[in-house]
Amino acid sequence: IIAPSLIKSKVTDFFLQLIRENMLYRLESNIVRDDIVGLLSKYVQSGRKETSLNAGGVCDMTIEEVTAGAGTFLIAGFQTVAYTITTAAYELALNPEIQEKVCTEIEEVLNEYDGELTFEAINSMNYIENVIFEALRIHLVFSIIDRRCTKNYTIEPVHPGEKPVHLKEGDCVWIPAGPIHHDPKHYPNPQKFDPDRFGKNKPFSLMPFGIGPKSCLGVRFAMLECKLILVEILRSFDIVPVKKTISSLPTFKDTSFGLSRKTLSTNFK
């Protein structure tokens, strides 16, 4: 479910066992709750060893598959959001002029909504969204996106001396999102933290949540979480560097899956 370099296997096993026991207890006791475990439990067909489609065209899943799905929602949605908020706060601490622009936007938007931090207010904060996307561009959570070919395809050569690449149905393709995010052809001065490089529509070369129909299904919720937490922090505090704050953060070139192993130290003032 999650690469072992991100989360220790004993942690993953603990959560999966917890979810499995909870799900089985609900099924046996006929307990219905409106949460992720309850929603996924609807697709469990007890006793099946393989996934199948029922008469209504809905996928019946095994208890193991549903447990894995719930575990993915729980674990994948925690580490990635925490890392994104951390790197965004880190960049804001190192770039006080950008932080000031974010605070100005927060104040202006909240004035329009009578000081209420509503869903609509959060969605109208475009600059802080660009800050988050720029943090994700530089400090990508996953530097590789994998896809599987659904049909034979040939990538024709673009430059002299190159050879065509022949892909077969079923081949696994790795898309180097990290290098693309740091390619000067797409992003001039790529090491510079510059939220103003983005407009309302983000370029196709920006892929922190993947690309295409198989992109992250939790992207909107993740962005809402990041924006909400950063707004709440910046309404009351300035994010400032401290003595332990490193001047530059390792990028995809020397990290695992894009996640930095360095401790990021900032302070709220």
From TrEMBL:
Cofactor(s) listed in the protein's UniProt record: heme
Keyword entries, A-Z: Endoplasmic reticulum, Heme, Iron, Membrane, Metal-binding, Microsome, Monooxygenase, Oxidoreductase
GO molecular function: heme binding; iron ion binding; monooxygenase activity; oxidoreductase activity, acting on paired donors, with incorporation or reduction of molecular oxygen
InterPro entries: Cyt_P450 (IPR001128), Cyt_P450_CS (IPR017972), Cyt_P450_E_grp-I (IPR002401), Cyt_P450_sf (IPR036396), Insect_CytP450_Detox (IPR050476)
Keyword Cytoplasm: no
Alphabetical list of Gene3D superfamilies matching this protein: Cytochrome P450 (1.10.630.10)
Annotated positions binding heme: C216
Any one Gene Ontology cellular component term annotated for this protein: endoplasmic reticulum membrane
UniProt membrane topology term: Peripheral membrane protein
Subcellular location, principal: endoplasmic reticulum
Localization in the cell: Endoplasmic reticulum membrane; Microsome membrane
Cross-referenced PANTHER family: CYP9F3-RELATED (PTHR24292:SF54), CYTOCHROME P450 (PTHR24292)
Family: Belongs to the cytochrome P450 family.
The protein, known as: Cytochrome P450
Species for this entry: Photinus pyralis
